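ping. complex inputs:
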Amino acid sequence: MTFLERPGMVSPSGQKLAISGIKLSGELLQINFLPGSGLTAPQLFHRLAERRVNLSMVTLDAAGGQWGGACCIAVDELPRAQPLLDEAADFLKILPSVGLLTVFPHRSRYDLLECILSAFAQANLPIHCIASSLAALTFATDFSRLDEAVSAVTAVADLPPNHAPVRPEFKVRQI
Amino acid sequence: METIAVYWEPKIKTYGIAEKTGLSMVSFFLLMEELGRGEGRLRRAASAAGDLLLVFARPSAHSGLRLHLLFEGRPTWHLLEEFSGATGGGKPSGLRVDADVELVYLQGPHYGDRYGIADAAFGALINAKVPVLAAACTAASIYIVLPKDTAAAARKALSEKFIVPGK
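pong. complex structure:
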């Protein structure tokens, strides 16, 4: 199916939406905590920091006084996080292999968000969580399907000529 | 390839702590099967909304997402009507509108690769008893949505843990 044949995926101009780039993460593990789980997000963040575990992405809400959300950590940091995850297993749901796809810039475009949501849905790609900055829009999906996610996004969004998605080439580790 | 970075900072360095006020946040549950049925309604809702600042979503207990849209200005009745149909399946469940919310945000070197950054930020706000409505952290940025008239207190609290070099 071509871009223009997909319902709900055409920008107002009928053209693909221009973006400047796509960045992909390495393999991550997503930790979900639903509201009312008994472990607040700040408590979880503190205990992960004590174990020197970095959070690659965080999304949370505390409306109504109950913390719910998700955070991602690198799979290779799992050994340091595992004791905490075991201890708090009743409060958390773990997704073992997720990857982040970041599109930039979003330029405050609702239509870009809607087109990408539709593209993920039509490709039957899961979205595990979303976070954005003022410039970038990040989606968490299955790590093994990141290439499919790139195809879905580039079906609705135009990259500059000769641009390839940026993949992690090095990792910064704090000691 | 791995690069090892050593940070030994009495206070965590940041490029700056900024705030925005007079914002609105709309939140609702979005089922995965509804993702592809927006039919442009979210886009049309944009015509009644201010600039979209942030989008973030956490997993919900309903096999979907709890989606949050933070934008400039106040929501209008027209906007809420459009959001009510934004998922293509009628009124979305759990529709919540927070008007007059505020945003405080900061960026710093390698924040996305360093442990303890989120802990420092949220710990500072909890210690100062600043309530948090929502937050999103990605790459080297932290964005925290706050109730009305709390952004200044949040900046002050964050300044206890984060410092702008030279200021």
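The CA atoms of residues 5 and 14 of chain A lie 11 Å apart.
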